[in-house]
Amino acid sequence: SLLPPPPSPLFDELVSATVSTFGAPLSLSPDLSKLEAALLAAPANLWGAYSDSVARGEVGWGLAGRLAPPGAPPPAAGPPAGDWDRTSLLICARGAGSLAGSVELRLQPPDAKIPFSFPLLDSLERSLSSFAFPAPPPPPPQPYLCNLFVLPARRGEGVARHLVRAALAVAEHAWGGFDAVYLHVDPKNKPAVGLYEGEGFGRVEEVEWRPGWEGGAGDIAYYVKRFDRDEEGD
């Protein structure tokens, strides 16, 4: 199912699931003494509640800012800059009345940059990069798959593969006109790499985003799956 725009119970459920899946709550070491644990328990709980609220705010505001407005038409191929920052679709898998997983499909210039939660920050970073290292403008946006997750209780059921295939179907057929889908994946995440390569994604070697301040993000692998339009008669 496609996620309805906020506010909606499903949107709130997805924000909570995203934070719990990707988040790293603070926990006390079991090696602490009873006195140390007692002294640190309250500050740790306060910090956990604060970080959880901040994470929920960032995830919720970011998703709400990227989602396509209700009733918006599917994006055409190669939209001009500025028209693609609110085109995201969230595709959800549900079972037994609850959320099992989700994946986001959005548009991004295929320049290997890992996108921020807020599209405005992407524009600012691209502007800074072009000022510091003059280069031709990036190619027109293409579909980009991100934020794929499956709740721990539903892993091993093929939910992730189902979500990836659903996103690919939307990008290739419902949106139309585009010739590829891109994504980033940590090369150390072998299950995710295996999933994407099994669905026809291959690593992009010729494009890198290295403006000089990327840090460890520059080591995240950039992948693409190209659509074979010739076989379809397009």
UniProtKB/TrEMBL annotation:
PROSITE patterns per the UniProt record, alphabetical: GNAT
Record-linked CDD domains: NAT_SF
Presence of keyword Signal: no
InterPro entries to which the protein is assigned, alphabetical: Acyl_CoA_acyltransferase, GNAT_dom, NAT_camello-type
Domain annotation N-acetyltransferase: ranges: 63-229
UniProt keyword annotations, A-Z: Transferase
Protein's UniProt name: N-acetyltransferase domain-containing protein
Organism: Tetraparma gracilis
